[in-house]
Write a structure and sequence with these properties.
One of its GO terms (molecular function) is calcium ion binding. This protein is 2% helix and 40% strand. The chain is mostly beta strands. Strand 13 and strand 14 form a beta hairpin. It is elongated and about 65 Å long.
Length: 232
């Protein structure tokens, strides 16, 4: 069974003290986490572009969806949850599904919703799987052919210390690039500092057919010319 979604949208969800949230989504089957989205920072209407594949034993078991607000250094805040009944889907027909988020502690609160574009279809290998998929032109053909992953690498980029000065003012404008297989992440640019404070969190998926080496490079942003390489 294939389950496909093109995007998730959360509207009017939990509002933190800053007036916004850093939401991410967990998907569970049978009490086991099978997929976790990346974190979208400071956004009440996030859109994710991710793709993953999991194997399921029983399509009659509902898919449990939980939304959290990421809090650096603290316990993440629960925003709301929803269930998707796979048996309610028509085979070989893509369907838009809107799931309202609920919290048993606040049954009357409007916590927003998740919108999924779902396609349910039999799989040739006579196995049953759920695939969450978004339209992403950046996904390579190799990525599309190999979607089974065995773990999630959750990375928090905290800070840099005593980086090399690359500019005439004795400072740099550093940013960091991460790469694991086809997956890439680029941090924000911190202007005019050798001790940047990023405080950014993101996730990579660890695939069976690829190694576990994460390539980390640090760069100095230069406007109008090629960025300077600081180190790997």
């Amino acid at each position: 069974v294939l389950l496909q979604y093109e995007k998730e949208i959360i509207n009017s969800i939990y509002v933190s003290l800053t007036g916004t949230s850093d939401p991410y989504v967990k998907f569970k089957l049978g009490g086991k986490e099978v997929f976790r989205s990346k974190t979208i920072h400071k956004n009440l209407n996030p859109v994710w572009e991710e793709k993953a594949c999991i194997v399921i034993d029983n399509p009659r078991e509902p898919l449990y969806i939980k939304v959290f607000d990421y809090d650096f250094g603290l316990q993440d805040d629960f925003i709301g949850s929803a269930f998707l009944d796979l048996t309610s889907l028509e085979l070989n027909r893509q369907t838009d599904v809107t799931l309202s988020l609920k919290d048993s502690h606040y049954p009357d609160h409007d916590l927003g919703s998740i919108v999924l574009s779902v396609l349910l279809a039999p799989r040739e290998e006579q196995r049953e799987a759920v695939i969450f998929q978004t339209q992403s032109l950046r996904l390579s053909d190799l990525h599309r052919k190999s979607q089974l992953w065995r773990g999630i690498v959750s990375i928090t980029l905290i800070e840099g210390r005593e980086l090399k000065a690359m500019d005439a003012n004795g400072l740099s404008d550093p940013y960091v690039k991460f790469r694991l297989g086809h997956q890439k992440y680029k941090s924000k640019i911190m202007p005019k500092t050798l001790n940047p404070q990023w405080r950014e969190q993101f996730d990579f998926h660890l695939y069976e057919e690829r190694g576990g080496i994460i390539d980390i490079t640090v760069w100095d942003k230069d406007a109008g010319k090629k960025d300077d390489f600081i180190g790997r």
